[in-house]
Structures are given as C-alpha cells and as structure tokens.
Amino acid sequence: IEAGREGVARMLYAPDLAELTDPERHESFFRWVYLRQNCTLYVDETSAISSATDWPFHMMGCLARGRERNIETWLATQRPSRVPAFIFSESEHIYCFRLRMEYDADKVEAMTGISSEAARALPKRQFFYAPQEGEIVGPMTLDLAGASRKAA
Does an H or E element contain 131, and which? Predict the structure, then answer.
C-alpha cells in the first residue's frame, strides 16, 4: 500500500500463477472489492479471469452495481471475443485500440458499432472512443509523452 496522488492510499494486487488459475481466488478478490466499497478497480487482462460464459459473480456486481457502492471499474483485454457481453453493456466508456483478430474486431463491432475493418486497421497508439450514449469518436492518438510532460 502506498500513497497515490492527493494522498489517497493505493494498493496493487498482482496475483501469482497459482492465484491467476484459481477461480475461487478471483471470486474472493472481487467480493473483497465489492464489500470494501469506495474503490477504483483496474483489471489488466480480463480474459485471464473470465470467459464469454464464465466469470466471477462479484466482478459482475462491481460492474452492474458498483456505482452505488462508489466502485469505479476499469477492465482491459486484448481478446474481447473471450469476455462476457455484459462487460460491454455495463460500460459507460469503451476505448478500442487495434484488434488483429477478426473475431475480436467482430465482437467489438457488434457491441459498440465500431467497424471491424476500422478496428483492425488502426495503427499503434490510435484508438476509437465509443461512449454508451453518443457518437463514436476517432481515430484518436494516445500521447503518453505529452501526458507525462503535463504531469510533471
């Protein structure tokens, strides 16, 4: 645990291989976040802990009812075809970077309206933004160098 920006405590949980392959531990972790409340949760590779048909119960709780518990959830994946559809339906904001596999791009198109061809043709560091309500924006360019200059 360390102090983040504005003195807010931050905790990083990086499961080892045994934990990553244990669905009971996934459920236990998401239950802990759900019951703790007042969290920002970021999962780096969602397809490692869920599939299109199987996911931790409390992960869905964080997404579907998290707002009332002050839980902000960010999920990332390189394989959108392998994650549950409710992730898309519960998301207020979707950022789509280049997707090489046709089936991944097809799922994103079906869930967001971002063209499969456009998602597959994106250069590195470019992305589309699809809000839950409103028009798709992009492609835009991710500027990490500019972000670090502004943070300094």
Answer: strand 126-131
Q: Is 129 helix (H, G, I), strand (E, B) or coil?
A: strand
3-state secondary structure of 124: coil
As a whole number of angstroms, the distance between CA 8 and CA 26 comes to: 25
- Hey, is 41 helix, strand or coil? strand
CA distance linking residue 127 with residue 19, whole number of Å: 32
Q: What share of the chain is helix, strand, coil (3-state, %, to 5)?
A: 45, 20, 35
The answer to whether residues 140 and 129 touch, using CB atoms and an 8 Å cutoff, is yes
The tens digit of pLDDT for each residue in 24-68 reads: 999 999 999 999 999 999 998 898 888 888 899 999 999 999 999
- List of E strands, 51-92: 71-75
Contact call for residues 13 and 20 (beta carbons, < 8 A):
no
pLDDT at 143: 85
Q: Which two tokens stand for residue 53?
A: 């048909």
Q: Is the pTM of this model over 0.90?
A: no
Q: pLDDT band at 151, cuts 50/70/90?
A: very low
Q: What is the token pair recorded at 60?
A: 């869905």
